Amino acid sequence: MSQQMRPYLEAQADCVEAVLAAHRAPGHITGGTVGPRLIRFFLNPAPHTRFAAIKHLADDLALALKSPSLHVRRGEEGVILEFANPTPRAVDFLTLLPEVRPLQPATVLLGLTDEGAPLLVRLASPDVAHILVAGTTGSGKSALLRTLAASVVLGHAPQALRLLCLDPKGRAFRVLTGLPHLTRPPVVGVAEAIEALHSAVRMMEVRDRRGETPEAVPRIVVLIDELSDLVMQGGAAVSDLLTRLLQRGREAGIHVVAATQRPSAAVLSGLMRANFPLRLVGRVVSADDARVASGRAGTNAHLLHGRGDFLALGGGEVMVRFQVAYIAEKALQQQLTANVGVGHALHLALPTAPLKAEM
Ligand SMILES: Nc1ncnc2c1ncn2[C@@H]1O[C@H](COP(=O)(O)OP(=O)(O)OP(=O)(O)O)[C@@H](O)[C@H]1O
Ligand SMILES: [Mg+2]
Known about the structure:
- The chain contains ten helices and 14 strands.
- The chain is of the alpha/beta class.
- The site of adenosine-5'-triphosphate has 14 residues, from helix 5 and strand 14.
């Protein structure tokens, strides 16, 4: 938390306590968290204060805090009051990375959760394995893929983790050209993309046959931007190859991370969609798109703010809101040119100031 926020938070906490006391539902704020988008206060209600009474006062509390809305729920910390952070901030990847280094094997840093904790994703986990990224234009999908790629090249040795980058538009991964982590230069054309997917499937089969464990060979992340374009242009060949990678890639240490605006049945088969255990969903334009992007109802992804405001949706009910850590192409370029040719995990001159997410 920045020091400038402390007077604001203290004033807001006083305000909450005053409103509750005035309505004969007293309680004390005992702490809280400041996330990139949301502020949470932990409330300890007086013994006679009913939870329902606090919930009933949500609108009055929002009004007093000058916040568009306020959400009251129960949590481990007692009663939690949740309202919008009036100064939402971008999360800087290069500031956050030193906090979580060294990264665990095959783990990538994607952002900061609304609880203020770094969101780390372990690709090898069966709950992850493959990731589908969805969201409308400007939601921040390409930036998210770049963050994931930056996690790989700045956090892992090429002997451990590599990238195969496909982008039919041909711009998203240019900055990675020439790195030892790439299995080949970023692929732009559809014909070459099909050939690259073929080679990934062949590698999967060879690894299967030899019984190689992913610990002994580099894991490979197949990064695909504009998945729908690729599937529409590449037709059945692309769908077939991708489905095979999705169904059997994990055991062979091959993971698919693919971004698309709208993962609708018209473009992606049900089989394909069912084989992405983790979905990362950014802003979409309608409630219907929210359902298509999330693969389930009730996520409210159409109410997200865009520019890196995402939900992580795992199996079951798990849903985490997070802000994607941002690294501009130019900043990544600078990090990489300073370290060209380094054959191990790159150790960089990163800012060391810890990032405080807690109050
Ligand atoms: N995590 C982020 N933090 C801050 N700004 C972001 C973030 N992600 C994206 N942005 C901003 O939003 C712009 C659009 O992001 P991006 O190009 O990643 O969107 P997209 O979802 O890939 O859109 P399209 O579908 O049109 O390709 C970026 O140029 C950047 O300015
Ligand atoms: Mg994009």
